[in-house]
Each structure stands twice: as structure tokens, then as C-alpha cells.
Amino acid sequence: MQELLATLCASLLAARTFEGAAGATLAPMLGRASEALGAGRHAGRGRMLRGMVHLRPGDGYRGLVVMELGAAAARLIEAGTPAHLPSASAWRWVATYGCAVTIDVTLGKVEPHLGGGGVVVREKLAGPDVAFGRESAARLLERAATHLAVVPLRLPGSVIGMISLEADCQAAIGRLFWGPEVLGALQLLADVAAPHLASLPMAPPPAAPADELLPVLGTKMAGLVQMARVFAEQEETILLGGPTGAGKSRIARWCHAQSRRKSKRFEALDLMTVPDELQMGELFGWKKGAFSGAVTDNPGAVARADGGTLFIDEIDKLSLKAQAGLLQVLEERRYRALGDGSGERRADVRFLVGTNADLGAAVAAGRFREDLYYRINVLPVKLLPLDERADEIPPWAHYMLQRRHAESTAEGRAHVAPEAERALVAARWPGNLRQLDNIIRRAYALALVEHGGATREITLEARHVERALGYEGGGGAKDPAFASIRRAAEAVVDEAERREAAGEALDLDLAEAFRGVVLGTAARRKNSKEAAFRLLGKAGVVQNRNHQKAFRREIEKVNTLFRALGQNGEGPFDDLVEKDET
User: Fold this and answer.
1) Which residues form the Sigma-54 factor interaction domain (predicted)?
2) Sequence-ordered strand ranges (E) for 145-223
3) Model pLDDT for residues 258-271, shown as the tens digit of each residue
4) Residue 492, helix vs strand vs coil
5) What's the Cα-to-Cα distance from 293 to each of 246, 269, 466, 488, rounded to whole Å?
6) At 415, is the secondary structure helix, strand, or coil?
7) Phi and psi of 289, rounded to 5°?
8) Confidence bin at 116 (pLDDT 50/70/90)
9) CA dist 536 to 80, 274, 532, Å?
């Protein structure tokens, strides 16, 4: 074991990406498990198949890597390839107790291993459907996996994911497969690897083609969408988290379009618009006369989505009674409409759910069922706020503007000026993509007013964007002064990049000249240095009669910058200094 640990540590130190560290971890774990299988009571009667690393810190997946036994390296799970995804029951035990779990797939028996590596708790489930869900159990059995070991990836105070190992051993069905000693060794290897898996960056994902539902894909979103593409092809529930307006509904429709159900209906139910007492009916339908006000039959969202996908948004708003009903549907795939005495119906539906709330906190507060939470939290995907996806803001603005312009005129083009792009990037976006779309609508309307109505060619200028942001009442734009400074900084960085391409460099110390540029500009506009100091909150300098010297000092910094940029002749504010001295 010491030699195995030494080899693992050396491989982890050499790894540069999450994928590399995952491969370095899975190889010795599969080796140790295979060794135990070959030496145990089932020697020669079974085989290890594959291992998988699931990295899911916080509220969403970050990495999903698989290694087949005997493979030279691990590989990122990609769309179009078979993928074993975790069962809700396994993840619940791993996340709650931070312990290893073994699963007899055929019998649906889960054995959490707590304390000292011994089996102290057993949960005998009714069958594979309850342990894994129908699709998960069938997928494992199709891949010849009769047994599964799941080991948590632990950091101090948290579980950030898990490692699953699959085996085929018909002779071990109904018997203890992995003993405490083997599971303890696997857990030790996982504990050593966890900090590396959590901290190493993901390898850059391949470029994804744009489409109508996801026309813009930034650097940070690329890996998330790659993960969502894999999840979309499965039948397990996807939990879409993230702030309001970040694009959960759009991603839900995109997942449906990537799924095997794409030719069927996509149905969306926003629970924010449904009173508590009507939630069961809106989900499962009702018969005429089922309650006061039920004057006609209502099939319900599940029936309308039959064969397709149902997206339930704001799942945290679901009442406890309706939560119990939804849990039954997810586990048994059967439901009954309110007032329907003819029997249960089958739910042939793929479920996607969305929330901007912390469901874990809602569980702790008693507002959300713990069993439902773990049932829908199998494949979590958390969308980032737009403020953390700044590289997406300009292309999204172009897309939204062009779409808006196309509604006004069948031909022609609309453009966002570079200065307007910088103003958008400098703003803050608590409302995310929804807020950005509103700002583009407003700025477009302001631009049309300037042009006297519809026009074939139109450009959004910075003034249009800044006026549109100004209507946000302080909630949408950052301080205007900061936005202006940000745009100036963008220009300096642009120049630095241009010089870098030419093999030159722009000294950061020259940025100190910005203060002098502001002061000189104010002096020229006010035609007075004293007025400029007062305007910029430095009236005390004037009162102390130090403003002449201070002005010359700041302007000299500007001149230094001017010369560094290759400009000859007088500085831009030298005339103001000379006028004072004469």
C-alpha cells in the first residue's frame, strides 16, 4: 500500500489538469480493487470493469471522467457515449455521512460503510428502481455491472464528489463483495487525491457549435455546457440552479433539444405563478367537479408533456403536499389526476427542475423534503451569474440587438459600438441575461428615436447604453464614475495588447498619469485650475495655495505618458501651465 501511495502522490504532483489527476487516481484504485477481487472468495469468477470520478463541489457538477480497466488514460465523458451516472440513493449516503457505499445492483441493496470501515448500517431497498431509478439500474446491468462501490471525495468539512468503481461478479450477488480492508484502502487513495482534483483546472473543452438556443458560449460556460450535453442524453432528473435570469429556461429547452425525446413536447411549469392549493392539480391534472371551481377537465403538466420533457421551475416554491406527489412520480413513474377514479396513469416524462434557492438550506429549515432533494439532485448544473461571464456580454448584446432589429425591419443590420460594449461590460447585472435583454431593448428604442424611427442600419452608441442603464434606478449600473474609469482602463489595456503583439511593453506605472488627465480635462472645461480642483473635491488644495505646484506635478506625469506613447511636441495640457506662469 505504501508503494501504491507513493506512486499516486508522484502522479498527482505531475498532473496539470483535473483529467490528468483523475486518471492518476483511478488507475491505482482499479488496480487495488482488481487485486482484491482476484484474491478473494470470488477469485476467477469476476472482473473489475471501470472507474469514474464525479467532481461536484457546491451546487453543480464540475468534472466527470471515466477510465475503463486496462486503459492508458482516463477520458472526459462526452455526449454520445455510454455514461454511468450516480444513483440518488448512493449520493445521498455519500454526501450525508461522508462514507463509502457498496451496491448490489441486481438486488438493489445499499450498504453504507461507517466508522472503522465496518458495515454498521444497511438499507434494504424494495428493488433497483428505488436504489437507482429505473434508467440507472438498467444502464448498469446493460454494462454488465452487478456491483458498485462509491467512495466520497472529502475535504475538511465537505464532500466535493465521489469515485465509483464498477464490477461484474454474478457469483457475488447477495453476498458481501468489498470488505472493510479494501474499502479502507480505496478511501485512503481518494482522500490523498481529493485536494488535487478540487484545485486543478479543467482541460479546455472543444469548441461547441452555436445554435439558436445557445447562440453565445463563453469560456466559463463552455465546460458547464459540455457537462449538460452529457446529462441531456440521460433520463435522470437534471437540477438547474443559478440566479434569476441567468438562463435556466433556455438551458432546459436546450437540454430537451439534445435528448432522445427532442421530437416530443417540451412543457414548462413555473411554480411562481401557481398558488399552493392548485399545484397538485397543475402538475397531475384534475377531473371536472374534483373541487370547487373545476368546471372543466385539466390534463395537467405531466400529461401534456407525455413522451417529452417537463421543466418545473422554482421547485423551491412547491408545497410539502405537492412535494410528496412529485417524489412518488419520480420513484414509481405513476400518478393519479385529482378526482379521477379510473386508476393511475404512467408518467412517461423526463423531468428537469430549476431553482435560484439554496435547497440544502430549505431542507434544513423543513421547507423542502430531504428525500425529494436527493432524488432531484442527481445531476446538478449551476449556471453562473452574468457578472462572472463578462466575456459573454458583448456577443449576447449583439445577438439580442440583431434579433430586436429583425423584428422592426426585414433587412439591414444593427451594431453595438465598441464604446457601448465597454459600457455594458463595466455595468453590473443582478438581473443577468434577462436584465441585459431589457437594457438592449431600451437602448435600441433610444437609438430609434434619434433616427426618427425605423432604419435599415443602426448602431448602439455608448450614450444609448448609458441612458438605458440610467433608468435602472441604481440597481442595474455601477457608479457612472467607475464605468468611465473602467472604459479608460480598457483603452489602456487595448494599447498594451497592441504593443505586446509588436514585441513591446507598456509600463503600468504610466497609469498614474490618469489623475493628471482628469485634472487637465477639468481645468480646460472650467477654464480654471482652481475650479477644476474644487470640482474634483480638492478645494483644500486651493485654500492652501498649493494648487499651482500640484497641477504642474500631475501634468508632468501626463507629459511622461505622452512621450512614452511616442508623441512629439507639447503635452496636451502644457498650454494651461504656461498660461498660469505668464
Assistant:
1) 214-445
2) 147-155, 158-168
3) 999 999 999 999 99
4) helix
5) 36, 20, 49, 62
6) strand
7) 85, 5
8) very low
9) 61, 53, 6
- Whole-number Å distance between alpha carbons of 369 and 375: 10
Question: In residues, how long is the chain?
Answer: 582
pLDDT tens-digit readout, 352-380:
999 999 999 999 999 999 999 999 998 99
Q: Which of 164, 154, 151 is nearest to 194 (CA)?
A: 154
Q: For residue 263, which phi and psi values (nearest 5 degrees)? A: -80, -10
- 3-class secondary-structure state, position 456: coil
Higher-pLDDT residue of 251 and 294 is 251
Nine-digit cell at 481?
A: 464614475
Which is higher by pLDDT, 106 or 9? Answer: 9
* Alpha helix segments (H runs only) across 277-389: 279-284, 301-304, 320-332, 359-364, 370-376
Question: Rounded to two decimals, what is the model's pTM?
Answer: 0.76
As a whole number of angstroms, the distance between CA 415 and CA 399 comes to 10
Q: Residue 476 in contact with residue 438, Cβ under 8 Å?
A: no
Q: Where are the alpha helices (DSSP H) in 355-509?
A: 359-364, 370-376, 393-408, 418-426, 432-451, 462-470, 480-501
Would you put residue 242 in left (φ > 0), alpha (ψ -120 to 50) or beta? Answer: left
347-374 exposure pattern, b = at least 16 Cβ within 10 A, e = fewer:
bebbbbbbbbeebeebbeeebbbeebbb
pLDDT value, residue 473: 60
Residue 208 has what pLDDT? 73
Query: What is the spatial distance between Cα 42 and Cα 170, in angstroms, rounded to a whole number?
Result: 10
H helices present in 233-298, as ranges: 248-258, 279-284
Cell of 428: 453590473
